[in-house]
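cron nightly-structures :: item 1 of 1
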Amino acid sequence: MSQNPTKHTKVLIIGSGPAGYTAAVYAARAMLNPILVHGSEPGGQLTTTTDVENFPGFAEVIQGPWLMEQMKEQAKAVGTDMIEDHISNVNLKTSPFEATGDSGQKYTADSIIISTGAQARWLNLESEQEFRGFGVSACATCDGFFFKNKEVAVVGGGNAAVEEAMFLTKFASKVKLIHRRDSLRAEKMLQKKLMENKKIEIIWDSVVEDVLGDKDPKNVNGIKIKNVKTNKTQELKLDGVFIAIGHDPATQLFKDQLEMDKEGYLITKADSTETNIPGVFAAGDVKDKIFRQAVTAAGMGCMAALEAEKHLSHN
């Protein structure tokens, strides 16, 4: 295959979601001609979220995939070069910075904005992976519809777990929330809504030991749980399991090059998106494990583009 010539840009944005797209809008409007490289499923986690009620500017409920499509089109309209590729290698020690895609395409950049986001975490049980897509899911909004009038479980105790459980009551006849502790980490207002919901039963102090199901056709028919205080195990009959135990940032690519915390989230300077390498910025869930909202990610994308512009004008 003939090698495409290296693409050079003042600003290379890696990843697409509220952070990447907003960074692209600001960088493009600053006449920096950014290149945004996104994978085969652009838009990030919001594309797996249907109803969005908390993004400012929309009185009616909007759809996550629609919002991401709009952001993408806006970034394109103001002059972002959108490329579908998967960045598999970066070198942040050179000037300009270098990146290589799976396509073989090489990119060089005077500054980089990292907005690669985060992915759902799994329990890593063999049975869970075996039934993934056959009754085991990490996304209630993607898969809840398939459990109309069925019984399901949600594993976790944070905002995500509570939100998933609430969402699933639209479809499921019964939702069991399984939490390893005896109290939830979720916001008080969400907890109150949860407790008031007749369809939800909370099973405290318990962990999932195994996902049970049929081999042919493949589908989940129950789970085995263990009470961590009494060590008693029991089997629950149900049709689906939703895992909501947190996320891992997509930062493998930057290992040993950028400072990260012990969970792998990129560390940026206070009140800034700048990483420990000048000219390299991080925005959105790749560095934010506290808020994890579309609006905060978008805000950071804006900050990153403005900081990149300032960096470029000084160098």
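cron nightly-structures :: done
The mean pLDDT is 94.
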